[in-house]
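# step 3/5: fold
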Amino acid sequence: MKQYETIIVSPPNLSETDLEALVTGVQTELAERFGGTSIVVTRWGKKTLAYPIRKFTEGYYVLYEYESQAEDCVAKIEARLRINENVMRYLTIRRDEERKSEARMKERYAKRKKHASDEGDSEIYSDDFEMEE
């Protein structure tokens, strides 16, 4: 099962009912039409944008975390988001691949640290340089 995150930025002038309809609409489409399971919706609220989009300097952010077995799930949901006028921007990433690469990086770091301590080069890998866990 592949794990994904999709973040949506919508205009700040949407009414509460329109925003709620957008959030629940995307959630139900993920579940029913595109085979998404374990859907977690996190509303980040209004945030300042890095640059103006459609003359707006703020946007309402919503994060969807979900799993899907379908190969074309991301393409289909992004096609739906592309035509929705209440979505200014969206981005989808595949989290399971990212978590695998993070685990590989931690393993490499641990091997290097062990190798350095075996050779007495421990000052290279001080506590200040410790990776986040």
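# step 4/5: annotate
The CA atoms of residues 19 and 122 lie 54 Å apart.
# step 5/5: archive (pending)
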